């Protein structure tokens, strides 16, 4: 094993390296930043400051080269390491997270572009480095948000213990021969070869490399029909005909597909319906269509940005055809391998974090093991403010029983489920009806002993403002959008600023100099981080708050399940 972990700054390569050391205890692991610090006898921040980035890169390359003498290893390299210089015989794994493109603000790392804001610095480097990672990697690993310790599904992933699913092979897989070799040996249900994604010679090559009983040949391009028909007739492969091409010319076809609003029609085949779904009403209609004949129907909704991936995971035990994504994939709604592995093959109810946005949420990772004990998966479900009324009954019908409610729905959920108005972040549909609570205040009280100050300003805040003011009743409330006090209180110079607004809320324009900022967000692109960096003051992330209130959520669910 000779693996190199590469990826953007702060993605979590070092922590992944530590977890891999427990998965493969016989393989030595090396964090290149740590090795450079050991070699220089000082922190890399000092090396940057004393010698500059270009000198650091030369030292980095030298230390990296020295590590390659080991017969086996896993090496994690920094985001700026010249990945084009990594020998091609090494196996290069690109570690990604969904939040990469949002940006990250660092408080404890050397600045690379000090003339820019910390967030702009990351985004500039992101655009510069992303194409290099794409070009010089052999595998793409999309890591879940919020992994902090050993993770069973991640372990299965790196041990290559796949649990079924259909993988569509595309150009990205063929351009990485080492990756394709790994893929071909894994336990997928089938490998889909689409004639609109692959050329004739590529399909023929894959037919010889893959187990033929696991090949699904999908017809999507009328211009290539003559060549792909030859493959069908010669090897008797399982076939999938897109009805958009017209009547199927084959006497025996196993699957008929529709990718429009029209339901598949025909006799003697499995029907796969994969339309673009824009509303919860249409999602419910597709689900009901599939459930009328679950042995012969599969429903795979599509969206522009992948918002229905949770639904596809929910359908894992309910239908024959379930596609997964390893890399970019052929549809944004295809779940990743780790997401697919986390879903049991048999369940009747599920839990979810519900809100918008939810792509950054740590809740699925944090609550996963808790709900696995109850034989339930935990999903991330995007629901906008305008959709909540229509989404709630659909989710209940599909099996939602427990939910973490996040922005912007905390103040809306009570009226939707028919309870007294208020701000709530935790829901359960119990035997006696819906029950709600808010655990934010529990987490805030845990913080209270650390916040010893007379003058406190609460900056922004929607659904979280009420529990914040319960814990800090004498704090001055400021509207982040207006930059003005919410009440007629006399303005103060805060000792502590509690950032209760959205991560990208406007920063205070006043000449405040608080001792510390307490951020209710844990997002790495939070404006509170940048504000703290500008003022060079103490910053407290909302991660501690999140974990405290999440533990309280589990206690609430446990009592009511």
Overview of this protein structure:
The chain has 561 residues and is α/β, with parallel strands linked by helices. The chain folds into 4 domains: 2-153, Rossmann fold (3-Layer(aba) Sandwich), CATH 3.40.50.300; 160-343, TIM Barrel (Alpha-Beta Barrel); 347-438, Leucine Dehydrogenase, chain A, domain 1 (Rossmann fold, 3-Layer(aba) Sandwich), CATH 3.40.50.10860; 442-547, Rossmann fold, CATH 3.40.50. Strands 12-11-10-9-8-7-6-13 form an 8-stranded parallel sheet. A 6-stranded mixed sheet has the order 21-20-19-22-23-24, sandwiched between helices. The chain has a 5-stranded parallel sheet with strand order 2-3-1-4-5. The mean pLDDT is 92.
What are the key terms here?
561 residues, alpha/beta, Rossmann fold, TIM Barrel, eight-stranded parallel sheet, six-stranded mixed sheet, 24 strands
Short description:
The chain is α/β, with parallel strands linked by helices and 561 residues long.
Strand content: 15-25%
End-to-end separation: 45 Å
The total number of structural domains is: 4
Instruction: Report the strand count.
Output: 24
Principal-axis shape equals globular
Reported by name, the CATH topology of the largest domain is TIM Barrel
**CATH level 4 superfamily of the largest domain:** Aldolase class I
CATH uppermost class of the largest domain: Alpha Beta
Helical proportion, percent range? 25-40%
Poorly predicted sequence stretches spanning 5 or more consecutive residues = none
Number of helices: 20
The order of strands across the largest sheet is 12-11-10-9-8-7-6-13
Instruction: Specify the biggest β-sheet.
Output: 8 strands, parallel
Structural class estimated from helices and strands: alpha/beta
Mean pLDDT: 92
Task: Assign the CATH architecture of the largest domain.
Answer: Alpha-Beta Barrel
The gyration radius over C-alpha positions equals 26 Å
